[in-house]
Design brief:
single chain; alpha/beta; Rossmann fold
Length: about 425
């Protein structure tokens, strides 16, 4: 176990046994649950442009015209979402669960998706070498006996200039989860192998009846409202490591990778926790904080916010990548200097019916609408598309310290908030 890495006492130490357990576990719960709809934008070039902006490549050119994308540990729907977002890409979805892949394949067929291939395979057994421009792996490697092994495979699968999108459990988000599962095992008797059929009903009863008025009670009150798949994945996964920013950074370096910047992920946005930068209140402490290197500053945030810190959802690249890493300040400087257009396209929806199948809704809707944050809406409305963004901010008398600029970047020009696209010089 790495310093700063915590893990639930699990039921397997050999990786082959973990693969078997994970295949069985996710075959039973088929996670994630079916979404109410899938969507596709009419502009096929938009998602690659926004991915480039996420890591500060304001002139685009991050992905080739027809990229190869690997969704590693795709579950029931992530590979399909990716194929819809990147219609010019060839997308590979890999998973251990035949049942999850069957769900994904059936939905892809009903939508007429032709750029998606699905394979049942272990991340610990694949041998892809420099094959992919973009690799997505969220919520997967921490369910392995040694997460460094699959992460090394992911690093090897990247092309030299490729990008990895990775999510692992935040150590502070897993304290109550791990405590509950350990308590359940001690209550029922720890099984020799995972026994979801026995554990899930008992866990449901415990969640429904445990009323102590403490943090655990509050946590279980929320978790108890989840559907069976999300409930089991949250509370009953038998192998689960978790990390801080610092231990994730160290793991990445061991595997030939480096952290780029955090993703503006949907789960953290909903909670208002997407930004990894704090306002400490004291000017001198704030100066010291902002002078720290990105990873050190994010680790301070991780420690101080603890359970309220964002998800550990980051972009990474190979340490031998020919493209220099851009720090947050540099990304913000490029954001100020870039000239932007308002994103304009249309979105089509594939809606889930009563029988569980998806069908295309006849009408399309304008996309993306208006920014949600008040300051972002003001900047969006006042944007002069002929001038660098800093001119619009100067006209509005907006603070251009880099933490404020970074908040605007997150709210306006990322994959999570796709309202502005930089004008490319290409």
């Amino acid at each position: 176990m790495m310093p700063g890495d915590t893990s639930l006492p699990d039921l397997a130490t050999a990786q082959s046994e973990v693969d078997r357990q994970n295949a069985q576990f996710y075959g039973q719960i088929k996670y994630p649950w079916p979404p109410q709809y899938f969507d596709r934008l009419q502009r096929a070039d938009l998602a690659p442009r926004l991915l480039a902006q996420d890591i500060g490549c304001w002139q685009g050119g991050l992905l080739p015209e027809e990229p190869r994308i690997w969704v590693a540990g795709c579950g029931t729907n992530q590979a399909l979402f990716t194929a819809l977002r990147f219609p010019r890409a060839q997308v590979l979805g890999s998973d251990l669960s035949a049942e999850s892949l069957a769900v994904c394949g059936a939905n892809a067929a009903s939508l007429g998706i032709g750029n998606l291939e699905l394979r049942r395979e272990s991340l610990n057994a694949v041998d892809y070498c420099g094959a992919f421009d973009y690799v997505i792996c969220t919520g997967v490697i921490h369910h392995n006996a040694d997460p460094a092994k699959p992460l090394t495979r992911l690093a090897q699968a990247l092309k030299p200039a490729g990008v990895l999108e990775l999510m692992v459990y935040n150590q502070f988000h897993r304290i109550l989860t791990s405590a509950f599962h350990e308590a359940l095992w001690r209550l029922l008797g720890k099984p020799a192998t995972p026994d979801l059929a026995h554990e899930q009903p008992a866990a449901r009863r415990l969640v429904e009846t445990f009323r102590q008025g403490n943090l655990m009670s509050q946590f279980l009150d929320v978790t108890g409202r989840l559907g069976d798949a999300a409930f089991a994945d949250s509370l009953l996964q038998p192998v689960a490591h978790s990390y801080t920013v610092a231990s994730l950074g160290e793991l990445a370096r061991r595997c030939g990778l480096e952290l780029l910047t955090f993703c503006n992920d949907a789960f953290s946005r909903v909670k208002g926790e997407a930004d990894w930068n704090l306002d400490l209140g004291d000017p001198e402490l704030q100066r010291l904080y902002l002078e720290r290197a990105d990873e050190d500053r994010w680790q301070i945030t991780n420690l101080l916010l603890a359970e309220a810190s964002p998800m550990l959802w980051f972009y990474l690249q190979r340490r031998d990548c020919p493209r220099p890493r851009r720090g947050e300040r540099e990304i913000c400087d490029g954001f100020l200097d870039a000239r932007f257009l308002r994103v304009k396209t249309q979105q089509e929806l594939f809606v889930r019916g009563a029988d569980g199948s998806y069908s295309r809704r006849p009408q399309v809707v304008a996309f993306p609408g208006q920014p949600r944050a008040e300051l972002a809406r003001r900047v969006y409305a006042a944007l002069d598309e002929a001038l660098p963004l800093r001119d619009t901010l100067a006209w509005l008398d907006v603070d251009t310290s880099w933490p404020q600029v970074n908040r605007l970047r997150l709210a306006l020009a990322t994959s999570g908030c796709p309202y502005l696209e930089a004008v490319s010089s290409e």
